[in-house]
Amino acid sequence: MSQTAHIPSHRKPRRSASKLALRAGVAGGVLGTIAVAGAAGPANAEPVTETIEMPTLGSLDADLASAVSASAEASQQEALDLSLQAQQDASIQKAAQDAKKAKAEADRKAAAAKAEAERAEKARVEAQERASRTAARTALSASSSGSTADSGSQVATGSAAAIVAFARAQVGDAYVSGGTGPNSWDCSGLVQAAYAQAGIDLPRVSSSQSSMGTSVSLSNLQPGDILYWGSRSGSYHVAIYVGGGNYVGAQNPSTGVVERSLDWDTPSGAVRIL
């Protein structure tokens, strides 16, 4: 076995050619600068005796590493700042969107509450008006329930009383063509509904209603008789005789349902169904 086979080498590892060239260039540049400065001085200048301490290659490596580390830290800090700014911007945008949604929902609820309050107030007013009208009709019906026909010798009783009371209770309602109640009527719609109170089913139109029952003269009327205008089989208007020389009918859009004297608009004839 060779005596030198296990002897470890004491040679230093070679530096890379690029690092040696860099360091040699730096050192050469510094020495060249000093040489130029010396040559440019006056001829009779005293020789420079001050010793200039040259930077070592080791210190240059340390400075370079420090600069690289500082740059990396700055880049990392900048990236961190940008990330935080982006998060803040996103949070602000989300908060603005949430606030906008909350406001829209609050406005919607406020509008719904206002509409509900308006509906409730309208219903209250309508109910109050309806109750007032019902009370007035009841009072009118009660005051006229004992009225007599013409000379006072006739009083509506039984089915006739129910028909007359219903007709008078509708006084003040509106006239609407084709109306069948409960708050608006046309002439035949009111007569049909009044007779329904007595359990009598009449046809819907005036010409058919005046064709029923038996004809009676205007001088021999009884409460509950149907008055008609026009010919009996071709009447264009009907009403209910309520006694006392008066009738109740849905006249027209201007007057609505009214109680009038026979003299106000004398009918053409009358029929009796009861």
Verbal overview:
The chain is an alpha+beta fold. The chain has helices at residues 17-39, 57-144, 158-169, 187-196, 206-209, and strands at residues 148-149, 154-155, 174-175, 184-185, 214-216, 226-230, 235-243, 246-252, 256-261, 269-272. Among the domains are: 81-144; 148-272, Alpha-Beta Complex (endopeptidase fold (from Nostoc punctiforme)), CATH 3.90.1720.10. The chain has a 6-stranded antiparallel sheet with strand order 5-10-6-7-8-9. The protein has a two-stranded antiparallel sheet with strand order 1-2. A two-stranded parallel ribbon has the order 3-4. Helix 2 crosses helix 3 (158-169) and helix 3 (158-169) packs across helix 4 (187-196). The longest helix has 88 residues, at 57-144. The N and C termini lie far apart (153 Å).
CATH architecture verdict of the domain at 148-272: Alpha-Beta Complex
| CATH fold category name of the domain at 148-272 | endopeptidase fold (from Nostoc punctiforme)
CATH homologous superfamily name of the domain at 148-272?
A: endopeptidase domain like (from Nostoc punctiforme)
- Overall structural class, as computed from helix and strand content, comes to alpha+beta
The radius of gyration is 58 Å
Shape: rod-shaped
Order of helices and strands: HHEEHEEHHEEEEEE
Uncertain runs: 33-41, 143-153
Total helices: the number is: 5
Give the CATH level 1 class of the domain at 148-272: Alpha Beta
Kindly report how far apart the N and C termini lie.
153 Å
Mean of pLDDT: 78
- The helix fraction, in percent, is 40-55%
The main β sheet shows up as: 6 strands, antiparallel
Q: Give the strand tally.
A: 10
Strand order, largest beta sheet: 5-10-6-7-8-9
What is the strand content? 15-25%
